[in-house]
């Protein structure tokens, strides 16, 4: 039964560490009647919602969708019209590869008020957690943020363009396409370009692999890295104080070979 005005707040849950949630996000959750949350949103964050709030998992993984996007859109609207304030909790920032704009547009088509609370994106936060500054004076003056896999399950054509640049390249949702990604950089004669892969970044399950374009596939195999992970390609990886010893040790092994 509706006991408050229909409203949808799209909340960015951040990169994984619940302490990286914004204060505005906490305030929004505290007023939620219903929370629809993704697989990449840390479930500890749900503790900020009232105990009486309805919690609905709507996460999507490759080959395993709790709901389709159309069904999620309809759930948002139905719950807002029935209960009032719906918080749609999405990993990272809802407008960076999160289909947040689609959900806002659908809710607004029913005359429902919408609010967006930005989140700290994993694009910058996850590399930063390993001391990687994706821009650095004298090293990298810009960066690409690219989805590795498009909505039709193909490799993004932007990756081939990014491989031609001197910018740092940060790829999300790319682990299943990693061999193809590496091939594109090798074609640009960038076999020695540093690469870092960070799985479950900023969480207690975080795993890191560091190498070069030519060697990273073997590193991934040895360390059993998988999704969800951020792929960072660029000289800034070599500049990380946190990874420097690890990287130098890796290079010394390469020389011995």
What features would you describe in this structure?
The protein has helices at residues 23-30, 69-83, 100-108, 122-129, 158-162, 178-187, 216-223, 236-239, 241-256; strands spanning 7-12, 34-37, 54-57, 60-61, 64-65, 85-90, 113-117, 143-147, 168-172, 194-199, 207-212, 229-233. The strands form 3 sheets. It has a 5-stranded parallel β-sheet, sandwiched between helices. Helix content is 32%, strand content 22%. It is α/β, with parallel strands linked by helices and 257 residues long. The model has no long low-confidence stretch (mean pLDDT 91). The chain is elongated and about 65 Å long. Helix 2 (69-83) packs across helix 3 (100-108). The N and C termini lie far apart (69 Å). Residues 7-215 form the Tetrapyrrole methylase domain. Its EC number is 2.1.1.107.
Describe what is shown at a glance.
InterPro entries: 4pyrrol_Mease, 4pyrrol_Methylase_sf, 4pyrrole_Mease_sub1, 4pyrrole_Mease_sub2, CobA/CysG_C, Siro_Cobalamin_biosynth, Uropor_MeTrfase_CS. The protein is of the alpha/beta class.
